[in-house]
Fold these 2 entries.
Entry 1:
Amino acid sequence: MSTLDIEAQILALRERMVAAAQSADRMVALRPPPPPAPSLESTVPGEEVQTPHGRHYEATHDWDQHRRHGNVELSALQQLPSDLLQEITEGRVKAAPPESWAFLDTETTGLAGGSGTCAFLIGIGRITAGGFTVRQYFMRDFAEEASQLSAVAAALEDVEVLVTYNGTCFDLPLLETRYRMTRAIPPFQNIPHLDLLYGARRLWRLRLESCKLTELETRIIGHEREDDIPGELIPVAYFDFVRTGRVSRLAPVFLHNALDIVSLACLTGVVPAAFRRDESGAPACMDLHHPAECVAMGRWLRQAGQAEHARLLFRRAIGRNLDDQLLYRTMWDLADLERKFQEHAAAVELWTQLASMRNPHQAGALVALAKYYEHRERNFAMALECTEAALALEPAEAIEHRRRRLRARASQSLLIS
């Protein structure tokens, strides 16, 4: 093949390549442009807010008063008594209308806390005449934190009671740190605070394996979430938004926060009611129906010095379907209260039942019976029998010492007789 033929082929190839490129350009020109990426406003409806400290984003969720959240109708929140929170806080929270309460929850960049953790989303729920409203304060990047925090402080100015769930150990210390790091004064010092977690644990720790807010939402309120984002993935979703601007993963975060707050409000109508007193001075928890709740509240009342009410709750719980281990412990606690109230026959009956079956309090019940027979019945032989049975179950120097003393007293009693 000659040089001219090769050059002709190269020229023809170039012409075909140019034609192909032009054709591709025409196809691209005819192709419709890709749809724009969804914006934050279209994904989470809200507005940009300007403050003296900059800008941030705010979104609002409204629940109509006739709407139900699980088994709670939100209109009931407006009817909560203004002194509902006094007993559970031992008087720290004074009477205030429910419309002046604020329910606060945060979504953060980490779950461990510390000065490097930020609350990128702060939600505040309020009871309103129309139902319930959650206002959410969102920093789209870290430069908006000061503006976000100043808006939260302004929103809390008229609040008379602040309600959180684990806010004592997590939300409030974290927010106070962020306020100080932005050279602002935390707004929480003068607002009475109820951390509902502690009351929920008192009431349900023996009934439920977990007292997480989402667990109570399901088991107590009866609300089942669908497609909820796991808490550990929330920081990941935020960092993805900051890095890429993608908002698709943010909508579940805002919804998660809003549902936490409305569930917190509903539980505030349930938990403190168990700690109130009726006109006779009896705790409202005397009306509890679940036996494990009766035991849990009985323990709290006993610790609070209300032994008579605790005894009544323990009696009620024992007559119902308690699991074995909880039953044994409650029988033991009740026997001690019966003894203190000089109801010795009732105490002996409980100790006898515990002594007759294998359980963690069997040896203790036998020792308690030995003390009873020795000091009240003066029946040293029966006291010695109970002591030896206890020693066989649980060898201990104190029980061995009791056996030696009882043997001597029993022998002396035989000589005298």
Entry 2:
Amino acid sequence: MKAILVLEDGSSFPGENFGAAGEGVGEVVFNTSMTGYQEILTDPSYFGQIVCMTYPLIGNYGINIEDVESRKIFLSGFIVKECSDYPSNFRSSLTLGEYLKSNNVVGIHSIDTRALTRKLRDKGAQQGIISTSDFDVENLLKKLKSAPGLVGRDLVHGVTCNQSYEWEEGEWTLSSGYSHGIPLIKEGILKVAALDFGIKANILRMLIQSGCAVKVFPASVTADEILAEEPDGIFLSNGPGDPEGVPYAINTVKTLIGQKPIFGICLGHQILSLALGGKTYKLKFGHHGANHPVKEVESGKVEITSQNHGFAVDIDSLKDVTLTHVNLNDQTVEGFRCNNYPVFSVQYHPEASPGPHDSSYLFQDFRKMMIEFKKNEK
């Protein structure tokens, strides 16, 4: 079946459909990861976006349900150079096309993804539409003009959980799959309240492996409801879109600062900065991939990181914070800590999935912060 991708600047890319038939509208971004397409598909941070993979062959190891990062695919469309219909992987249970179709997500392949990526790098991320039913470019442009963008929208409400729940799944091993239960750790189990702005499963698994009992809360939870659980620490998750679109979450975090140790990732990092009185801004084409170099300012150590965000924090707008991490590609802020409170955050994804594990130490840093805070409380 034929398909077409049209961007808001009027450029079009005819190709072939895989996955579901129909139309998908969203902000088109590119991801530079060579592997991990299943985790990318199920990352709620891509809600409202269409993802183009820069690696040319996608789908060659199929789909394995154990590797999903959330309850479904949240992105609006998927773009690849070549989609493999013949996966080679003993864990695979579906092809990529079958998985997209079962989630009603439209895909397009057999287009020049290198040319598309170059356009997005030069002009920036822009709205796009994939269609398998309408091939009139002018008509598709009209549909794009009527579609909402990302700036100012509350996308979190579309990905967060409906009610709180406890998480018990730990790391995966080849011999036994995912572990269940919290590992015995010398200092004992710590209670963590995780605010779900679009949380990835591997973040929760990493918290479990760090010796934490995790309870996940909807983004609409109040500060009083969180504190009533008497957690040892509070985690602010990743999520989609513009952090300024979720003022209720900003106000909740503002109330929580100083009452318990806080660790934020990605959107949680941005929401934290706004709660501290700072500002955020939209990046030209965002950071999406598993190979972004980040420098830890204090030690000079470089970490290769997994990233997925379209907004960044303006460090000059924040007071009483210390810059901890910087992106070596464009010098944007990748992490900070508060000088007066047990609070820190990073823009990138230390839980990876997909990506390198260079930054997994941050979960242990969070644990140490909670232990120190408990000692001082006594």
